[in-house]
Amino acid sequence: MHVYVRDTYGFLNLSSCTTSDLQINLDPSPSMIDDTAWDLIQSWLDTCIRTHKRCNEREQVVPDRLLQLDRASESFRLINKRELEPSVRYVTLTHCYNIDNQSLQLTQSTLEQLSSSQPLSTLPLAYRDAFSVISRLGLSYLWIDRLCVFQTDRTEPSRATDNNQLRDIFSNAFLGIATTGSTSPSSGLFATHHRRLITPTVLHIPVDDKGTMVPYMAKSEQQGEKVIDFWDEPLSKSAQAMNQRLLTPRMLHFGRSLIYWECHSAICDETHPKGRLNFPDFYFGLEGEKTQTGQELQTIWKPLLDVVFPAADPVDQVFVHWFALLERFALCSFSSPGERLARVAGLASEMGESLSQRGYNNTAYFAGMWKAMLPGGLLWNIRKDGHRPAGNNVPSWSWAAVEGPLVIQKVTPERANEGLICELVSANMSTPSFEQVTGISDGVVVLKGKLFSGKAAQNTTLPPSIGTIAETRWDLKSLATVGGSPIAFDAPNSMQGLNWTVVFDTKQDVTCDIFCFPIYMNLEKEQWHRIAGLVLSQLDDGRFARRGLWSIVVDSTEKALEIIDSVPNQDIEIV
């Protein structure tokens, strides 16, 4: 259906519906703190406790310190784990770290003060709201890093404790609370709904001459794919919060407009209280994580609201989920270049173990890349506004070398290595170094294949609406052989639809003279062939560095082979 608004129009993919069949709630509570909202939260929690086996698999581990709530006096105090039973249920708080250093925190000088009863009114609003949540749920113990971990002068206080301790704290929590819509603890948890903005739209459309009205909805809203609002929540941009979300068995998000639920077996929100359908074949509902055929998915990591991984094969599922997580991590903010690899190191270690358990043993890993994905997996790209941070000690061929919105082209080893016209000779990779995030700049990938020189030129026909994308998306005007008898291949007229394109990783990489190394060739549109590969620059020592991607489309097999066969194979080193 086309929708016209004044001088513009858009397109909606509609289907007939009944909200009862889709289990969509068109009348969410206007408040996050009324009885209707609390009843829904309690139902999510009760169902998870009763029916989700994986969500209830926790060890009897208690943090060194917890905050104990006293409902009668509306106060709290810091207690040592020696005062607690190992089976105690505690709740963690995940929040943004824009905190005034003058606010209350745990130090040697405040330990005695916090160990005695303190009024809740002394805390930032988000902390007080978190205590309200645990009180409403009948719980008594809350873990907040700033008040339970001795603070240092670091920006993110959770770094003050050992990573393994943090892992234990979050993975063994009974529940996690996330201040998803808040930029700082002073903002609080609870927002007032803007109902028209969060409720799916039902269009009643006449379908015959009698005026029979049939309800229609956009398919995206039926399936619960509308997670753009969640992407824009402040906490969704925190890499540290991403790690905590993955570790915490069940998490309750308080966004700017909606309350969300994440656990190992369900993804819900107030408009999809029974679960969200993410892509046609996968249902993340309170009944558990299943395909439409009813087959239960065996995932390594907890499904997240903004990370979708549609793959049924056990090994493919691991790789697809991994790359979906990488794309989300790439959108997060980091305090230092090395933090990007450090944040995914634990995930990589878990992935290697899981692949081995599933009978897949090609688990060499280095600088954020799996050897099984090479050479096809080198064809990642940055959607826009990429930049290479100063002091980033990462090989240029790794996605971790460039900051920006990441796109993984082909996300399983089988797909990544379809149609290859080059081969991997060697890669400086090692299996056990998942945690290695420094001293890796000498990582070398050696490929055997064809090397061309190319001429790029700025595309002056791109519309202004694409913004900064035009600064790095150029036209490839020609390819030529390197050395020997020069053979040049000129780009066809763009009106033919045979696009020759260069996409540089960053604005600093943009140049007219490039080297083009083809990775694969695929058949498209009957006789059309796409050849795609890496844009490289040559360093003083003769080795190469990645600068982006290139692709060309030609209209016949003969033309594709003429280009590929015009130069001999050679080994090149990419650092």
Which features would summarize this protein structure in a list?
26% strand, 2 domains, nine-stranded mixed sheet, alpha+beta, 575 residues, six-stranded antiparallel barrel, Heterokaryon incompatibility domain-containing protein, 21% helix
Could you explain how this protein is built, in words?
Helix 11 (314-329) runs antiparallel to helix 12 (339-357). The strands form 8 sheets. This protein has a 9-stranded mixed β-sheet, sandwiched between helices. It is built from 15 helices and 31 strands. Strand 18 and strand 19 form a beta hairpin. It folds into 2 domains: 39-191 and 228-311, no CATH class; 324-574, no CATH class. Mean pLDDT is 85; it is low at 155-161, 278-283 and 289-295. It has 575 residues and is of the alpha+beta class. Pfam families: HET (PF06985). InterPro entries: HET. Residues 90-205 form the Heterokaryon incompatibility domain. This is Heterokaryon incompatibility domain-containing protein.
Please indicate the percent range of residues in DSSP E strands (runs of 2 or more).
Answer: 25-35%
- Give the mean pLDDT: 85
Going across the major beta sheet, what is the strand order? 7-5-4-8-6-9-12-13-14
Distance between the termini: 50 Å
Structural class of the secondary structure composition? alpha+beta
* Discrete helix count: 15
Count up the domains: 2
- In percent, how helical is the residue content? 10-25%
For the secondary structure, the number of strands is 31
- Principal-axes shape call: globular
- Low-confidence segments: 155-161, 278-283, 289-295
Radius of gyration: 27 Å
Biggest pleated sheet? 9 strands, mixed
Protein name: Heterokaryon incompatibility domain-containing protein
Organism: Bionectria ochroleuca (Gliocladium roseum)
